[in-house]
UniProtKB/TrEMBL annotation:
This is Fatty acid hydroxylase domain-containing protein. It is found in: Membrane. One of its GO terms (cellular component) is membrane. Its main location: membrane. GO terms for molecular function: iron ion binding; oxidoreductase activity. The keyword Endoplasmic reticulum does not apply. Keywords: Membrane, Signal, Transmembrane, Transmembrane helix. GO terms for biological process: lipid biosynthetic process. It comes from Monosiga brevicollis (Choanoflagellate). Residues 108-234 form the Fatty acid hydroxylase domain. InterPro entries: Fatty_acid_hydroxylase (IPR006694), Sterol_Desaturase_Related (IPR050307).
Length: 260
């Protein structure tokens, strides 16, 4: 084994160890208690000044995001090292001729399977009381999320909806590695835009945070487009209380100004 290969192996082991640490830390009693306390205060929007709210909100998003990010990278590295080569589509383009139609078809196949997986697992995170209480409630602490909220999820949720959703289409269709990497990157960009709430959000994910009430009373579960929400009648097209140009902080500031 060359020095580079051995460095890669050690990097993979390090990543997987970090993932294990991340998962176990996120499940510790102390971490859960602290996390739930912050979640409660954010959900209730009480006793916090505007500045404190903004600071706590973004820091909480970033803190959750770092743990989720490490877990996602570790699982991806594990998949690439040990699982990918067992899938029938592995190195498909090294063994077959291909043209531009493969690339174009890949876009639709990837988006179709990724979004179906996202819808099903997202519904599961809401429908199961256990999954909601221990995993998904952390993401819903952010009623008026920022762009940083894209990755602000429990590590388990990040793994299920990140690498699992990303690799699922390759079980059904050979996607060129370059196209696959590009779509994965674009999915993250799309999710950032969806949480920012101002543009490129075809399925109004911002309403899912802002207008959704708790575990059962929710809608707009898909990420990319409204297909599955329309099919299963879980689509909310407009919510006047969630006008993103009139956020909680801005409403408060305007109210304060009127009172001066
Ligand atoms: Zn949700
Ligand atoms: Zn979200």
């Amino acid at each position: 084994m060359t020095a580079t290969e051995s460095a890669i192996v050690w990097l993979q082991r390090g990543c997987n160890l970090l993932a294990l640490l991340c998962l176990s830390a996120s499940r510790s009693e102390a971490a859960l208690a602290q996390s739930k306390e912050i979640t409660r205060s954010l959900l209730e929007f009480e006793d916090l000044s505007d500045t404190a709210m903004a600071t706590v909100l973004v820091w909480r998003e970033v803190k959750l995001g770092v743990g989720a990010l490490i877990s996602v990278v570790a699982v991806t590295v594990f998949w690439m090292a040990y699982v990918e080569k067992l899938v029938w589509t592995y190195n498909f383009f090294g063994r077959h001729e291909y043209n531009v139609w493969w690339f174009i078809s890949s876009i639709f196949v990837y988006m179709f399977f990724f979004d179906a997986w996202f819808y099903v697992t997202h519904r599961w995170l809401h429908e199961s009381k256990f999954m909601w209480d221990t995993i998904h409630i952390h993401h819903h602490a952010f009623k008026e999320p920022t762009a940083f909220c894209q990755d602000a999820v429990h590590p388990v949720e990040a793994i299920v909806q990140g690498p699992f959703g990303h690799y699922l289409p390759t079980l059904f269709f050979p996607i060129h590695p370059l196209a696959h990497a590009l779509f994965g990157f674009l999915s993250s960009i799309f999710a950032v835009a969806a949480h920012d709430g101002r543009t490129w959000d075809l399925n109004n994910h911002y309403y899912h945070h802002c207008a959704g009430k708790g575990r059962r009373n929710s809608f707009n579960y898909s990420l990319y487009w409204p297909l599955w929400d329309a099919v299963f009648n879980t689509r909310l097209v407009f919510s006047p209380s969630c006008d993103v140009t009139n956020t909680l902080w801005r409403r408060k500031a305007e109210t304060a100004q009127r009172q001066v």
